[in-house]
Amino acid sequence: MGREVENEADSDKYHEEKRNDHDVGQMFINKWLDIKDTVNNWCEAQVIDLTETKILVHYKGWKSKFDEWIKIADVERIAVLNSYTDRPRKYGTLSMKVGERCDVLDSQDKWCIASIIDVNTVREQCKVHYPGWSDRYDEWIDSDSYRMAPLYRFTPEPENERLQRQNRCRPQSTFTATSSHEENFRNLLKAKHGWEIAEMENDGNCLFRSISHQVYGNPEFHTLVREKCVEYMESESSFFRNYIIGDNQDYEDYCKNMRRDGIWGDNVEIQCMSEIYDRPVEVFAYQAEPMKTYRRPSQQGSKPPIRLSYHFQSHYNSVIHPRNHHFVISNEQPGEIEDRCLKWSALRSRQALDQAISLSDVEATELEGMRIALTHSRGEFEGQQSIDFDKAVHESVLVFEQTRKEKLQKDIAKAKEISLDDSSDLELKKALQQSLEDTFTLTSDVLSVPDVESEVLQRVIKETRSDTSESWPEPVRHCHKNLGFSLELCVEAFSIFGTQSNVSDDIVISNMTNYMLESSNRLKIPVIPVDEQESS
Questions:
Q1: Is 353 in the same domain as 432?
Q2: What is the pLDDT of residues 454-472, one digit of tens each?
Q3: 57: exposed, middle or buried (C-beta count within 10 Å: 0-12, 13-18, 19+)?
Q4: CATH number reported for the structural domain that contains residue 344 in this entry
Q5: How many domains is the chain built from?
Q6: Starting from the edge strand earliest in sequence, which strands make up the sheet with 68-71, in order?
Q7: Do 247 and 311 lie in a common domain?
Q8: Exposed, middle or buried, 11 (CB in 10 Å: 0-12/13-18/19+)?
Q9: What count of Cα atoms within 13 Å lies in the side-chain half-sphere of residue 406?
């Protein structure tokens, strides 16, 4: 017990102190408690009857024959619920309104669908009914119990309801992208940065899958990412509720709905996760530069950005560098970063200040620094909210298409003025002409991506008019003569990678080789590494 009881007086005094330490409050029927059974094991139990001095308790999951009367004064056997029994993690919150459906862990520890049929706000309990079961199985459960969770959090959602919900909740857009837009978007990121788009399932979880993939290298932690995101939104409700239409109840309903699997996330959730992971989030949409950037709260250190690709109809994918992505993956266990952020959020809350939580000088300084950084980050976020992102992306694509179309048509016209037929190297001229026609001709609904400047194009044309291959651009000559790629493919690859400024021929050759390996099935000779090329 931690102290020696010498006589009855001391015993009574000890019991009184114990009672005060573990004050279970007023007794009432349906109250849940921790009860020590007859073999000294602590169990969850519910009061099913009482007198002025005794309570009749029923042990959860046990048969009624084990019900027993216990003296209220016997504080050695009575304690506040979950003082000695395990309290599993609670998932989500409920509005606790009559008629609300939810998941409930029944007395046999099985998750079932139930409906709230009564609410006692004074005792903070609700009565649930299990559809298809007799009323005698109805039970009162504490409103904050781990045994209650949002609907379909642990029970399977019927397929027809899932499809209806996803179609209803999926953001609608009047803009669409063609397959050419999508393909060229990928080629552009590859050509400009060496990045690839990692496809996420189009199931309503794509944003959270993408964030999980960026942070942990695996999209399968999307459920945890979503849960922690909503917890943070609730903790920081004083800010985020300003971006949800309606009152406080509407915001609570929004958060409750956002917890559900398959609900699309968007701007608010991205800002939220930028704060959680303390990393900027860059969103790319059919261009090589980000259309939108969410700044990280902290300005200290150099944390790599989270990169997402945005596609019309509010679909997100993860943008990675295939060779370097593993360097930016967190080495912490999923949940550690998020819980640490939630802790700091709690310290920032008004409730924490009201409770006069004592902080060390270091903690207080760090907390103030985070508050200032958050204010700056959120100021930028507020300034972006008037932008219709889909519309902005669509207009940007149209302008880019028109500008590129006009420029490339001029380049083609200029190229045609040069007498390609006078050259003795007909194979090269034919390949170049075909490449120009295939690569640079645009229609009104196709976004072309190779970023070819006029002077570079003229360089290719000028140098390929020579009688000998020695006058070809070095990357073209090397890939065609030494590596065995077709001339047409070499010219095509050079038109993509040979335009990069301040890039050596070796790097251009390496980029061209990777591109052509993916594009051609006709390669006969293995690729020679750059260092071996130099030594040769």
A1: no
A2: 444 445 544 444 445 566 7
A3: buried
A4: 3.90.70.80
A5: 4
A6: 68-71, 54-59, 42-50, 32-36, 78-80
A7: yes
A8: exposed
A9: 5
Cross-strand pairs, 368:
none
Full residue range of the structural domain in which residue 60 is found: 8-80
Describe the strand order of the beta sheet including 292-294 as a list of residue ranges. Answer: 196-198, 315-320, 306-311, 281-284, 292-294
Go through the chain and tell me how many residues it has. 536
Q: Do 368 and 334 fall into the same domain?
A: yes
- Taking Cα atoms as reference points, which of 267, 212, 221 lies closest to residue 244? 267
Q: What is the dihedral of CA 461, 463, 466, 468, to 10 degrees?
A: -130
**Where among 362, 387, 412 does a domain terminate?**
387
| Residue 32 confidence (pLDDT) above 80 | yes
Same domain, 224 and 204: yes
We report the CATH number of the domain holding residue 144 as: 2.30.30.140
Predicted confidence (pLDDT) at residue 273 exceeds the cutoff of 90: yes
Note whether 57 and 115 are same-domain residues.
no
Mind spelling out the 3-state secondary structure of 299-366? CCCCCCCEEEEEECCCEEEEEECCCCHHHCCCCCCCCHHHHHHHHHHHHHCHHHHHCCCCCCHHHHHH
Q: What tokens were used for 400?
A: 């880019």
Is residue 170 in some structural domain? no
**247 domain-assigned:** yes
Q: What is the pTM of this model?
A: 0.48
Q: Are 116 and 76 contained in the same domain?
A: no
- Rg (the chain; Cα; Å): 33
Give the integer Cα–Cα distance in Å for 348 and 357. 10
List pLDDT tens digits, range 193-251.
999 999 999 889 999 999 999 999 999 999 999 999 999 999 988 888 878 877 788 88
Query: HEC profile for 157-184?
Result: CCHHHHHHHHHHHCCCCCCCCCHHHHHH
Q: Are residues 137 and 110 located together in one domain of the fold?
A: yes
229 and 365 inside one domain:
yes
Can you tell me the distance from the alpha carbon of 292 to that of 306, in angstroms, rounded to the nearest whole number?
12
Query: What pLDDT score was predicted for residue 434?
Result: 54
Alpha-carbon distance values, 159 to 41, 156, 223, 264, 291 (Å): 43, 9, 19, 17, 36
Q: Is residue 115 part of a domain?
A: yes
Tell me, yes or no, whether 299 lies in a domain. yes
pLDDT single digits (tens) 90-102: 777 787 888 888 9
Q: 453: part of which helix (H) or strand (E)?
A: none
**What is the per-residue DSSP string for 360-410?**
-HHHHHHHHHHHHHHHHHHHHHHHHTT--HHHHHHHHHHHHHHHHHHHHHH
